[in-house]
Design a protein that fits this description.
globular, GH, hydrolase, alpha/beta, 36% helix, eight-stranded parallel beta barrel, beta-glucosidase activity, 12 strands, TIM Barrel, glycosidase, two-stranded parallel ribbon, 13 helices
């Protein structure tokens, strides 16, 4: 009882972090296109449109838009069974609310899917991955129910266009991160209040549920999942107050999976909204939409675990653009960016979700950002990345073999180097493939295989049995 024979090994990217070509072939601006570069000490800025003299990483990124055939060939060389990618919504509907789609954008993804099919690679497509069309801001973005209809039009368009080419879909990337990063997740100002965040979440739940129904109607073979930003925390101590504070923090996150996997708002969230005076913009028929539009599987990212306790409430608010809980886990090592390394936490989260929902799971992001350099011999030695991934694959293996978790696949993040969403850097690299681009967008854009490339190729070839 190891990984199933049809296990979907692969890798993951997002359009706004790899495609570039931000205004090519009729594409409109997205929220990502007005986020400047930054680093771990200097936050990215959101500007009022594209300002002259500012550097925007999404505008060029790694130019995957023009290199996708080369990149997919490298994925195939590793033996990918699956490639998780996103469609850039504003490439299909430039303003978000257009009546007709942009044919050049649709044709581009036709080419991408045809290239994947040539190598037998299954696409797993995220419909909205931190790239809300900037045009939706004119009516309040996701705080307005109009956004639901815009998204549904977009979803129906691509479901119809790519019928038979794409069978696996995700609606919103890391939807729970709306509680911490409103701009990236929903095109809301980062100081958006609790009512605005609540309205946006409600409308995204409705949009996702309607998309699930439409996907099944267009092609019964379609499988639509949700995507959770893999926040998981431990109580700081066995002090009941620390345990209660941890439960409260995690309820902010798990309520997203509860709604999308169970089809209704959990009682703890409804009580919280009563206490805080938040009301839901409910219309007749909404409850049935949520119930019928439950997802087919739950996917999530996992990079690290957190620690929460009594002082967390003063540190982590509903609209904080960070996950600083006020605690550091003394038992874990950290990456160069200060992210705790906790493979056991992945097994814990897999069990928690499978016990909670009893639907198939998929780990669609996992990895470690490092400073990778090309050696004098032209080689890129990234043994630390190999060690990190090995331990997390072992944790998944235990969840499958020992705990009986139904795990569909594994697509580690940034299988090819791309722009970091959190910092806007290129030097924070995750990939098996090195791309010669720096933090200012300069470089040859040459692709190079890292040591982890051959290692992951062996992992896939042996279905996770050979991890040495």
């Amino acid at each position: 009882m190891s990984f199933p024979k049809n296990f979907l090994w692969g890798g993951a990217t997002a359009a706004n972090q790899c495609e570039g070509a931000y205004c090519t072939d009729g594409k409109g601006l997205s929220t990502a296109d007005v986020m400047t570069g930054g680093n771990k000490d200097t936050p990215r800025r959101i500007t009022n449109g594209v300002e002259e003299g500012q550097y925007y990483p999404s505008h060029v990124a790694i130019d995957h838009y023009h290199h996708f055939k080369e990149d997919i060939a490298l994925f195939a060389e590793m033996g990918f069974k699956c490639y998780r990618m996103s469609i850039n919504w504003s490439r299909i509907f430039p303003n978000g609310d257009d009546e007709q789609p942009n044919e050049a954008g649709l044709a581009h993804y036709d080419e991408v899917f045809d290239e994947l099919a040539k190598y037998g690679i299954e696409p797993l497509v995220t419909l909205s991955h931190y790239e809300t069309p900037l045009g939706l801001r004119k009516f309040g973005s996701w705080t307005n129910r109009k956004a639901v209809d815009c998204f549904v039009r977009y979803a129906e368009t691509v479901f119809t266009r790519y019928k038979g080419k794409v069978r696996y879909w995700l609606t919103f990337n890391e939807i729970n991160c709306l509680s911490m990063m409103p701009w990236m997740a929903a095109g809301l100002d980062n100081n958006a209040g609790p009512q605005e965040v609540s309205d946006a979440a409600y409308h995204q739940f409705l949009a996702s549920a309607r998309a699930v129904q439409i996907a099944h109607e267009i092609d019964p073979q379609n499988k639509v999942g949700m995507m959770y930003g893999g926040i998981m925390s431990y109580p700081y101590s066995c002090d009941p107050a620390d345990v209660a504070a941890n439960d409260e923090f995690m309820h902010r996150m798990y309520f997203y999976t509860d709604v999308m996997c169970r089809g209704y708002y959990p009682s703890y969230k409804l009580r919280e909204m009563e206490r805080t005076g938040i009301t839901l913009p409910v219309q007749p028929g909404d409850q049935e939409i949520l119930r019928v539009g439950k997802v087919d599987f739950l996917s999530f990212s996992y990079y690290m675990s957190l620690v929460c306790g009594k002082k967390t409430a003063a540190k982590a608010s509903e609209t904080a653009i960070s996950i600083d809980t006020g605690y550091v886990n003394p038992y874990l090592q950290q990456t160069e960016w200060g992210w705790p390394i906790d493979p056991a936490g992945l097994r814990h989260l897999l069990n928690l979700f499978y016990d909670r929902y009893q639907i198939p799971l998929m780990v669609v992001e996992n990895g470690m950002g490092t400073y990778d350099t090309v050696g004098a011999d032209g080689a890129i030695h990234d043994e630390a990345r190999i060690d990190y991934l090995r331990e997390h694959i072992l944790a998944m293996k235990k969840a499958v073999e020992i705990d009986g978790v139904d795990l569909m696949g594994y697509t580690p993040w940034g299988c090819i180097d791309l722009v970091s969403a959190s910092t806007g850097e290129m030097k924070k690299r995750y990939g098996f493939i090195y791309v010669d681009v720096d933090d200012e967008g300069n470089g040859t854009f040459e692709r190079k295989r890292k040591a982890s490339f051959d290692w992951y190729k062996k992992v896939i070839a042996t279905n996770g049995e050979d991890l040495d």
